[in-house]
Amino acid sequence: MNEILSRMRMRFSVRAAPATEFNAQLDFLVSPVRETRHDAGDDLLTAGLGRAGLRGAPVAFIHPAQPTPGEVRRRAIQMSWKGIAWLQAHAAADTYGTLAPVPGREYGAFARAPGVHDTHRVLAQIPDHFDHRARCLLVAPASGSRGVYGAIAVAGAWGLPRGCAVVYTDKAGGSGYFDSASNTGVALDGTRAQAGSTPLEFEPGSPLAGRDAVGVKQAHSADNTEADWGRHTLQAARFGLAMLERAFPAEAPFTPHNTRIIAVGISNGGGAVLQAAASDDLRLLSGVVAGEPNIHVEGGRPLYDYATEAALWLPCALLDPHFDSAPGARGNALLTASGAARCATLKAQGRLAGSSLPEQARNAWEYLRAQGWSEGALRSAAICTAFDLWRSVAVLYAAAYARGGSAPMPCGYHYAALDGHGQPTPATASVRAQWWPDAAGVPPGNGVGIIDTRQSPPDLHAPGLVCLRALWTGADALAQRLRAGVAATRGGMPRAGLPVLLVHGAEDGLIPAAFSSAPYMAAARAAGLPVREWRVSPAQHFDAFLALPGFAQQYVPLVPYVHAALDALWAHLAQGKALPDDAEIRAVPGLPPTPANLRLPQ
Description:
Elements: H1 2-12, E1 34-38, H2 50-55, H3 69-84, E2 104-111, E3 120-127, E4 136-141, H4 152-159, E5 165-169, E6 178-179, E7 184-186, E8 192-194, E9 214-215, H5 217-220, H6 229-247, E10 260-266, H7 268-278, E11 287-291, H8 303-317, H9 333-348, H10 357-370, H11 375-386, H12 389-402, E12 413-417, H13 429-438, E13 448-452, H14 462-473, H15 477-487, E14 500-505, H16 517-526, E15 531-537, H17 559-575, E16 583-586, H18 595-598
Parallel strand pairs: 4-5, 4-10, 10-11, 11-14, 14-15, 15-16
Antiparallel strand pairs: 1-2, 2-3, 3-5, 6-9, 7-8, 12-13
C-alpha cells in the first residue's frame, strides 16, 4: 500500500499546502489529493455541456472500453444531473438556475471514518470567482446511494454561480463497483483499475459469493455506512476548508469562524446533513437545509421497515381503483399480472382477506393506510413498484444493515453482471467502464442485476421478499443483527442554536413525510430548537420523474424549494433576517413551472 500511495503522489503532483491549526490534521484522508483544472469548455457545474448537453444523449467515450478520466467525469456529472433534475424541454430554463459555465478547480480524495473498513469519496469544487468577502462553503452528501457528484443539481446549482465553494461526499455509497471476474474496481480518477495497482473506491476483503459476482460497497463493505453519514458529511466540511487554503494560501486560514458552512442534501443526503447537525461537536456548520430527508427518529418508521412492507403489499394494492389516476400504475400488463399473483400469495399466507381480487386489492390498500401511509404517498409510490424500487432498496439495505461483508447476502440474493437474457455473465470492459459514471449505486441497472435464488412462480419475487420482511419482524440471530444495524442509524436533534430548514413533498411516496420529517419536526419543536419546515403539495420524491407521462401534470418539482430554502438560510446568516416560518405550500402543477405556480416563499 505504501508503494501504491507513493506512485499516486507522483501521478497527481500533490503539493504541500500551508497548514493552519484548524486544518492541519486531515488524518482521515487515505489517498493523495487529486487536483484538476476545469475551464468553460469543461466547467465545474455542467462539465461544459450546458442545459442542452445535460438533457442530451449520454456522453460517448472515444474508446468505450478505456475512457479517459475527463470523459468519465463529464459523463458522471451529466448522469448525476439526469438522475436528480427535470431537464426536459418543457421545464423552465431557470428551474435549477442559469447553468452558465463556472470555471475553477476540483480536489478529490478517498477518506475513511474512524473504525470502519472502507473509504468514502470527498470532492471539493472551488470556483475561480469564489466570493472572498462573503466566504461560503456548501457541504453536499449525495442523494440516494449515488456517487460523489450526486448532489450537484442541489448544491452545485445554487452555490457555484454565487461564488461559494462546494464539497461533496458519496457517504461510502456510490457505484465504484468491484468486478470479481476481472478483479477490477474504480480508481480515484473514475477509471477502472486492477486490484493491487492503485487504491480503489471499493475492494472486497475476501472473494464475493455468487457466480460472476459484482461487489457494491454499501452492501459488501461490512460497514453500516448509514450510521456514519454524519461523520462523512463533517469530514467533507473539513476537507473543503483545507482545499480552500490550498487554492488561496495567501488568505488562510479558512475556518468556521470566517467561512459560512451550510450542509445541504436531499433524500439520503437530507438524512446525512441532519445526522451531521446532531453530531457537530466542532461547531463546523452555520446552518442546514434538508430536502425530503431519510431520517429515522423516535416515533417514526425506518426505511427498511416500510420498504419491505411496500414491496410485499403494494403490488396487490395497485389493482384497487384508488390508483386509477396514479402515474405508472396502469397500462402495464406485467404489473397487473404480478399484482394478481401477489394478492393470491398474501391470501394463501393468511395475511389478506377477501374472496375476490377486487376485495383483496381494496383490503391491501386499507392495510397500508392503517400502517400510516397517506393516500397521496401511496399514489406516488406506485411508480416505485413499477420500477421494482422497493425490492432493490430492501435487498441492498438488508445486506448493509446485516454487515456481512463478502459473505452471502441475506435471503439468497447476490449481484452479478447479466447478459441480454438476464443470465450471469462476465461483464465486458465497455460495460464496466460505464458503471461508475452511470449507475445510481442501487442495482439493478447498467448491466448489473439482482440474482434471486429463491424466486419461484407464479409470484416470482414473493419468497425472497417474505424473507426480507421476516428480518424486520422475526427473532432469529440475523434478524436481531439487522435490527441492531437499523437502530444504529437513528438520528438525533441538531445541536442547540443551529438553524435547520426542512423541505418535504406532501405526496412523497419513497420517503413518506409521516415516517420521517414529521416525527423529526415534532421532536425539534418539543425541544424548542430553531427548525422550520416547508411542506409542499403536490410534490413527490423524484424531480426527474416529471419527465415521465402524467407526472408533470400532477406534481411540481421539489428542488426549487430547496434552493429557496438556501436563499432564506443565507439571508438569515449573512443579513440577519429572521428564519422563515413553517409553511404549507399549495402549488399548482403547470408546464412550464413558473414562480407563480410554484408559489415559492419569498
